Amino acid sequence: MSRHPDERLxxxxxxxxxxxxxxxxxxxxxxTDLLVQRPDVGRALSRALADTLQSVSRxxxxxTLTTEGLCPTCADAExxxxxxxxxxxxxxxxAIESSVAYRGSYFVLMGRVNPMNxxxxxxxxxxxxIARAKVAxxxxxxxxxxxxxxxxxxxxxxxxxxxxxxPDVRVTRLARGLPAGIEIEFTDAATISAAILDRQxxx
Length: 203
Ligand SMILES: [Zn+2]
Description:
Helices cover 44% and strands 13% of the residues. The chain is of the alpha/beta class. The chain folds into two domains: 7-55, Helicase, Ruva Protein, domain 3 (Orthogonal Bundle); 65-201, Dna Topoisomerase Vi A Subunit, Chain: A, domain 2 (3-Layer(aba) Sandwich). α2 crosses α3. The chain is elongated, with a radius of gyration of 20 Å. The termini are far apart. It binds zinc ion (ZN). Zinc ion binds next to α4.
């Protein structure tokens, strides 16, 4: 696909095409939609993105993205704070929330172990997870990283680190009912519910 001759339009299209899951053709369609069919949505998107970029930070408790200091899930008094479910991304957290089988708290890694890109325990905030696990009352940590190669490596790193620093906390892994090689975020709610209920002790 050839580049748009107008430089600013070409740049805008390339920015959209650089997003996950959007190819050059979809990017061109999105740009036309936002500039021609729905300029009101284009303006709202531009404002919302600028505002959110200014106010977004990491939740001091679970590490997820938040615009409110402590995130709404951590601030929820109804949540069982004695169980922490460790997920890779906010999208995975949403998938587990939709399963309804889980009412505990979370820790969001915002990635997974990837030595090639210099992502290890430090970058994933594992020291903060350990600090939280050391608080009296935490009895279980559920590892809910995906069953992909990197997700398994991340699970193994978490297991060995947690066993070393918080040996009294039970560590479980989502049951093997989840399809191999699949991201948690693309798994249906019923399968996730079964995997949570069947979670198994590790180590
Ligand atoms: Zn939080």
